[in-house]
Amino acid sequence: MAKLHPQMSVSPNAPVANLPVKLPVAANKAHGHARNPGTELNIDWLEGLNVNFSAVERRTSTLLGRRTVKKQWQAAWLLKALACMDLTTLSGDDTPGRVKRLCAKARKPLRDDLVSALGIQDLHLTTGAVCVYHEMVETAVKELEGTNIPVAAVAAGFPHGLSPLKQRLAEIRASVDAGAKEIDIVITRGHVLTGNWHALYDEVKQMREACGDAHLKSILATGELATMRNVAKASMVAMMAGSDFIKTSTGKESVNANLNVTMVMVRMIREYEDQTGFKIGYKPAGGIATAKDVMNYQFLMKEELGYDWLQPDLFRIGASSLLADIERQLEHYLTGRYSANNRHPVG
């Protein structure tokens, strides 16, 4: 990644591949670190968690006010964001044809002319994953055969998470059997709102076991948890129960990912690593539609957790339309002109 050294003298017309940036040669060699085995539920640890929301707001506002990148540096950050994207379709009218087109875009997210002009042919850049409903897992797995791109399946009664636990566990196992390498589950928000941490812990732990070798991303649906303190506690319980990632939202709530809730969740990730030594991934989802949006999340991850959390094994972005805007911004970097959106179809 670009290290934002303003003293470096680089021609703005130089290909991105020749710039002093650290891009993923194999973007999807995901999960190169030890998996989170979880811990025993520690209620005392939970009770010690507090959130100063005013301080959170100050931190995010000052971060945005002093971080900006332009030209080749912006292009490098956007290529990194592309490699960390879970390219997603979760619509009621999804069809095999739509999923096949999405997988084709995941395999080749940038047009050939842009790849050539940027000088990044050797990167073989792809998105971080393709995320679909269980019914589309087999289609996606088949379309991505021969690549390192994992299929992520939403499961466990997504998006509400209110179906019987036995049914949710069966859905997870079915998606794993169909070839999903990552499972995005949704927690029962009622457990958080009533402070039933034992029930939440047991639920997520059983889901982790049902995943087997597949990685577990626990969706907290933060917009429905009422308080930032609840967000902090739910994050910690999900990690204690063995989650490999914690994720903000289903994308179906009225309030989805934002920087304030991200700040709280990544501070819990940092606390969990300090206490256990295990690194947990983070995935914001819902409402991240522009290049400017995604770079704000990248800056926050870099500032709070470091460069490891700018890689696809620890950072994913749940998005669909975002890819088109990233491609559009990269074309502007090369040509100085913005092209029409219809030149950048996603699926």
Task: Give an account of the 3D structure.
It contains 13 helices and eight strands. The protein is α/β, with parallel strands linked by helices and 347 residues long. The protein has a single domain, classed as TIM Barrel, CATH 3.20.20.70. An eight-stranded parallel beta sheet has the order 7-6-5-4-3-2-1-8.
CATH class: Alpha Beta
CATH superfamily: Aldolase class I
Tell me what the CATH architecture is: Alpha-Beta Barrel
Total count of helical runs of at least 4 residues: 13
The proportion of strand residues reads 5-15%
Number of domains: 1
String of helices and strands: HHHEHHEHEHEHHEHEHEHEH
Helix content: 40-55%
Give the strand line-up of the largest sheet.
Answer: 7-6-5-4-3-2-1-8
Supply Rg. 20 Å
Total beta strands: 8
Architecture blueprint of SSEs:
Layout: H1 43-47, H2 53-65, H3 71-83, E1 85-88, H4 96-107, H5 112-118, E2 129-133, H6 137-143, E3 151-154, H7 165-177, E4 182-186, H8 189-193, H9 197-211, E5 215-219, H10 228-240, E6 245-247, H11 259-276, E7 281-283, H12 291-304, E8 317-319, H13 322-335
Parallel strand pairs: 1-2, 1-8, 2-3, 3-4, 4-5, 5-6, 6-7
Helix pairs in contact: 2-11, 3-13, 7-9, 9-10, 10-11, 11-12
List keywords for this structure.
single chain; alpha/beta; TIM Barrel; eight-stranded parallel beta sheet; 13 helices; globular
